[in-house]
């Protein structure tokens, strides 16, 4: 969950209004008034930016601090899988797969070494990826049978 907050693979998204509609906030100078969206207008949003908002996640929003989820509950401010009727149907499968793979890696390797001296750089295409790939080496746990 913390990784998906800071680096949501679908970092931007948009919706087109199929009828005249009013969003409850987003308008006015402070963005706190209702906002009129005309039929066929497109509203684009960035989960990457929203997930780093200090007013939503606190002053340390830019920090990877998984413990924050002990006291906050994900809502419409956390949307790596989107929400509503078109929410990602693969969400639970993806989370289960990521958890399973992480546990298997931790059990099989005692260390993950970074092999890339270059600074971290992201690349935004349709999805958010790593610009330079993921250059790591894995040190096997010698106690495990081959
Ligand atoms: C970390 C992994 C994943 C992320 C972050 C993710 C994210 C998303 C997001 C944001 C959407 C909504 C797109 C939109 O409506 O604009 C979406 C839709 C979708 N996802 Fe995923 N997804 C992930 C994994 C998966 C997996 C594992 C599957 C299938 C096994 C899957 C199947 C789908 C499908 C079929 C849709 C389209 C749903 C529709 O339009 O009604 N996703 N996903």
Written account of the structure:
The protein has 146 residues and is of the alpha+beta class. It has a domain at 2-88. The protein contains four helices and eight strands. The protein has helices at residues 2-6, 47-50, 54-57, 91-108, and strands spanning 12-16, 21-27, 33-37, 42-46, 109-114, 122-124, 128-130, 136-140. A two-stranded antiparallel sheet has the order 1-4. A two-stranded antiparallel sheet has the order 2-3. A two-stranded antiparallel ribbon has the order 5-8. A hairpin with a 3-residue loop joins strand 6 (122-124) and strand 7 (128-130). It is elongated and about 65 Å long. Protoporphyrin IX containing FE binds next to helix 4. This is Cytochrome P450. Keywords: Heme, Iron, Metal-binding, Monooxygenase, Oxidoreductase.
Key words describing this protein structure:
146 residues, alpha+beta, two-stranded antiparallel ribbon, 8 strands, 21% helix, 27% strand, binds protoporphyrin IX containing FE
Furnish the topology, listing elements before pairings.
Layout: H1 2-6, E1 12-16, E2 21-27, E3 33-37, E4 42-46, H2 47-50, H3 54-57, H4 91-108, E5 109-114, E6 122-124, E7 128-130, E8 136-140
Antiparallel strand pairs: 1-4, 2-3, 5-8, 6-7
The first-to-last residue Cα distance is 32 Å
Helix/strand order: HEEEEHHHEEEE
* Overall body shape: elongated
Which class of secondary structure composition applies to the elements?
alpha+beta
**How many helical elements?**
4
Q: How large, in whole angstroms, is the Cα Rg? A: 19 Å
What percent strand? 25-35%
Q: What is the number of E strands? A: 8
Spatial strand sequence of the major β-sheet: 1-4
Bound molecules: protoporphyrin IX containing FE
Q: Report mean pLDDT, rounded to a whole number.
A: 93
The amount of helix comes to: 10-25%
Unreliable sequence segments: none
């Amino acid at each position: 969950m913390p990784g998906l907050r800071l680096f949501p693979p679908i970092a931007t998204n948009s919706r087109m209004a199929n009828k005249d509609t009013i969003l409850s906030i987003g308008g006015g100078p402070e963005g706190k008034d209702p906002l009129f969206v005309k039929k066929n207008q497109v509203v684009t949003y960035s989960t990457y930016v929203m997930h780093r908002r200090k007013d939503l996640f606190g002053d340390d929003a830019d920090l990877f601090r998984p413990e924050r989820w002990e006291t906050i509950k994900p809502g419409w401010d956390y949307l790596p899988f989107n929400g509503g009727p078109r929410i990602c149907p693969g969400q639970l499968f993806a989370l289960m797969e990521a958890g399973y793979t992480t546990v298997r890696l931790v059990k099989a390797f005692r260390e993950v070494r970074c092999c890339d001296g270059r600074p971290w750089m992201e690349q935004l295409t349709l999805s958010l990826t790593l610009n330079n790939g993921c250059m790591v080496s894995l040190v096997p746990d010698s106690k495990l049978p081959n």
